[in-house]
Design a protein that fits this description.
This protein has a single domain (7-204), classed as Hypothetical upf0131 protein ytfp (Roll), CATH 3.10.490. It starts with 6 loop residues before the first strand and ends in a 5-residue tail after the last helix. Helix 4 (162-176) packs across helix 5 (180-188). It is built from six helices and eight strands. By secondary structure, the chain is an alpha+beta fold.
């Protein structure tokens, strides 16, 4: 079995697509529009690289975000279509600390990533972002993300809030260079947002900076 890697690609499909928001996970701070902040990682350096990416599957909104209000973004690779994402090249320790902060736990505990690379999916716990997914390699490093242990069809969907959508817009614009119209069309089509937000309404939201 391959040893646990020193570097990984973290594929973000939610608010961390926005570089300023992701920087709060790395260096600590309160994202603009959020109600609480993050402690930051042990290693506070910026990502070594960031690239646009599309994951197989889809994104949906569910549960209640204490940071943004409204539904959170989750990834289900069994959904049809594609999930717009942004991949960051970071250290394995940074990835572990980001996961800890998502679950409101102290940072400092490393992850053994050999199991998820072998199995493709590992549930570290029942929490909303404690299921690790290995999505193949990007270059020489593994591409990883985390999501909920349930499937999109197993949970009640919840509309995302306007502040959350604004930071998602910023991330999609930065990562993919999409227009407001394309961003609105994409986000309004996702389960949880669909039927509650229209593409024009999302397109008209000012982008979080």
């Amino acid at each position: 079995m391959s040893p646990s890697p020193a570097l990984v690609w973290y594929a973000s499909y939610g608010s961390n697509m926005c570089a300023d928001r992701f920087a709060c996970y790395l260096a600590g701070g309160v994202p603009l529009g959020a109600s609480r902040g993050h402690a930051g990682c042990r290693d506070r350096r910026a990502p070594l690289s960031a690239v646009p990416y599309e994951l197989p599957g889809g994104v949906y909104f569910a549960t209640e975000s204490a940071v943004w209000g409204g539904g959170r973004a989750f990834y289900d690779r069994d959904l049809p279509g594609g999930a717009a994402a942004r991949a960051y090249l970071i250290t394995a320790g940074q990835f572990a600390d980001i996961l800890s902060q998502e679950m409101h736990r102290p940072t400092g505990a490393d992850l053994d990533l050999t199991t998820v690379r072998a199995a493709g999916r590992v549930e570290l716990g029942p929490g909303r972002y404690e299921t690790l997914l290995y999505l193949g390699d990007l270059g020489k490093q593994p591409l990883l993300t985390f999501t909920a242990p349930w499937r999109a069809t197993d949970v009640r969907w919840r509309p995302p809030s306007a502040p959350y959508l604004r930071v998602l817009k910023a991330g999609l614009r930065e990562a993919h260079g999409w227009t407001d119209h394309r961003i609105g069309t994409y986000l309004a089509s996702l389960p949880g947002a669909r039927g509650h937000w229209t593409a024009p309404d999302i397109a008209a939201l000012p982008v979080t900076r």
